[in-house]
Amino acid sequence: MIGRPLPLRDLGFQSTLELMANMSEVVRVCPSEKGTFILKAIADKTTKEIAKLVARQKSARARKSAAVKAGAASPSKNRQSFRWRGRAPVLPAAVKAELQDLLS
After folding, report:
1. Would you place residue 89 in the very low, low, confident or very high pLDDT band (cuts 50, 70, 90)?
2. 85 part of a folded domain
3. Distance from the Cα of residue 10 to its chain's centroid
């Protein structure tokens, strides 16, 4: 996000995972298959509404299935949804500010 590696050692951490584990009010570290981890953001009062909207979205599998079903009838919709996949997500200002405070 800032174009350079996190200064983990300067912050007193040995790894990014250790940093995330010490930010329990911001992110939850969940073990996953094959020794990997999933980082889940914890919503606060400023991001609760966004979290609700995300939770109400259909799963990626359901969207893909719906897109395949609609493919023959409406190819323009598939092209439109494909264009959105390549765009980077936009972080809320509150999240950016918290990351900047953490990094400073």
Report:
1. low
2. no
3. 25
